[in-house]
TrEMBL record:
<dbReference type="GO" id="GO:0009073">
    <property type="term" value="P:aromatic amino acid family biosynthetic process"/>
</dbReference>
<keyword id="KW-0028">Amino-acid biosynthesis</keyword>
<feature type="binding site">
    <location>
        <begin position="275"/>
        <end position="276"/>
    </location>
    <ligand>
        <name>phosphoenolpyruvate</name>
    </ligand>
</feature>
<dbReference type="GO" id="GO:0003849">
    <property type="term" value="F:3-deoxy-7-phosphoheptulonate synthase activity"/>
</dbReference>
<dbReference type="InterPro" id="IPR002480">
    <property type="entry name" value="DAHP_synth_2"/>
</dbReference>
<feature type="binding site">
    <location>
        <position position="118"/>
    </location>
    <ligand>
        <name>phosphoenolpyruvate</name>
    </ligand>
</feature>
<feature type="binding site">
    <location>
        <position position="433"/>
    </location>
    <ligand>
        <name>Mn(2+)</name>
    </ligand>
</feature>
<feature type="compositionally biased region" description="Polar residues">
    <location>
        <begin position="1"/>
        <end position="18"/>
    </location>
</feature>
<protein>
    <recommendedName>
        <fullName>Phospho-2-dehydro-3-deoxyheptonate aldolase</fullName>
        <ecNumber>2.5.1.54</ecNumber>
    </recommendedName>
</protein>
<feature type="region of interest" description="Disordered">
    <location>
        <begin position="1"/>
        <end position="29"/>
    </location>
</feature>
<feature type="binding site">
    <location>
        <position position="79"/>
    </location>
    <ligand>
        <name>Mn(2+)</name>
    </ligand>
</feature>
<feature type="binding site">
    <location>
        <position position="361"/>
    </location>
    <ligand>
        <name>Mn(2+)</name>
    </ligand>
</feature>
<dbReference type="GO" id="GO:0009423">
    <property type="term" value="P:chorismate biosynthetic process"/>
</dbReference>
<keyword id="KW-0808">Transferase</keyword>
<comment type="pathway">
    <text>Metabolic intermediate biosynthesis; chorismate biosynthesis; chorismate from D-erythrose 4-phosphate and phosphoenolpyruvate: step 1/7.</text>
</comment>
<keyword id="KW-0104">Cadmium</keyword>
<comment type="similarity">
    <text>Belongs to the class-II DAHP synthase family.</text>
</comment>
Amino acid sequence: MGRVSTDTAAMAPASTTIDWPDLPATQQPSWEDPAELAEVLSVLATYPPLVFAGECDALRDRMAQVAAGRAFTLQGGDCAETLADVTGPNIRDRLKTILQMAVVLTYGAGMPIVKVGRMAGQFAKPRSSDVETRDGVTLPSYRGDMVNGFEFTPEARRHDPGRLLRAYHASASTLNLVRGFTGGGLADLRSVHSWNKGFIQGPAQARYEQMAAHIDRAVRFLEASGVADSEEMRRVEFYSAHEALVLDYERPMVRRDHRTGQLYDTSGHFVWVGERTRDLDGAHLDFVSRVRNPIGVKLGPGADRDTVLRIMDKVDPHREPGRLTFVTRMGASTIRDKLPALLTSLGDEAGRVSWVCDPMHGNTFTSPSGHKTRSFEDVVEEVRGFFAAHAEAGTHPGGIHVELTGNDVTECVGGVDPVDLDDLGLRYQTLCDPRLNHQQSLELAFVVAEMLEEAGR
Ligand SMILES: O=C[C@H](O)[C@H](O)COP(=O)(O)O
Ligand SMILES: C=C(OP(=O)(O)O)C(=O)O
Ligand SMILES: [Mn+2]
């Protein structure tokens, strides 16, 4: 996790003293029992913060480097974390995948990679429909393990406030292990590099051999010079992020930093507002505008100059370096048309925020077998369009935000060791959107590293 020099005394619970304005909030659970909810909210407000304000400040500084074009961010993890998947091997493998990608990207970018997991809080989902119908039976849609269960029964699909507490504990366990791994040697550059060799010895050999050989030489140089033995090479800064969606979870997690009196959403380091909940007069943008964390806002193809400027004025009125990140998710076939025009229309204002590419959410389709999927080639094409748009507008392509897992799932099609449409049913495990599997994630890192190298020339 982010290392900070300030002391880490607990932050005073502040949620009970905040008068949240009564604004429209979309995509919220319909809890049945107000008394049960009130009890849960008061318990949540007494729990320890999951992150420390000083860490959020450190991440804001890192994101300021991203905005300035001096760092690149990698944000990745599940579409929807699940309580059942909070296990040691799952957390380790997801973290390993992100660290592996980061080493490759560091080489391509020639600059620091700010590593952020969609982890330890990504337990709630906005949905297109409130209900799901199967064989003539209609039940509430699955909204993430923080709200209800995936099983298609009335009991499981009930919105259960007790799940807010379970999501908190699952997030705490996840963060605890991540902190152990990132501080305790798992992230050692030499180990991460040797895992990547496994990938290159596979089907990716021909395409990425040259870059892998260059990375190998760079690591051997560090080893020979003794730098690889330093503490710095054994530890890694890693931050948590999730969509600030369910306000009954986020609000009680807000704490006042005892050092400064400022409010932080202590459920994660970086929180973002999704494409479906970023209404200018809604509760979500209002919520994030009141906390000091670095904030993300998703932008789909419909986002125009006026909307973007109004979001900036609301969330980042002082244009504070590192405060605001726009995560664009336009779609591979749309980005080259929409993003350059948007960036250009913003003029100098475009340079005051970070721009990150989510190449997943604009590229979803349903396979003939009925699986929600994405094609690896579309994902790559959107990132290419993202780099081209920033080159055209003279702004910085600041990072990528991807749905991925460390496991060998078959959810997205394509890649150098391709998952075919017919394979999707083999290991389709996501409860919401399709994720890149381990191999596809590493391949994406190599392709993006090539783009970064080219952009830096
Ligand atoms: O992750 C993003 C959204 O929650 C997800 O794409 C919505 O999926 P749906 O259209 O199946 O509801
Ligand atoms: C809901 C998500 O995305 P978006 O808000 O961009 O649709 C997500 O990131 O899982
Ligand atoms: Mn998703």
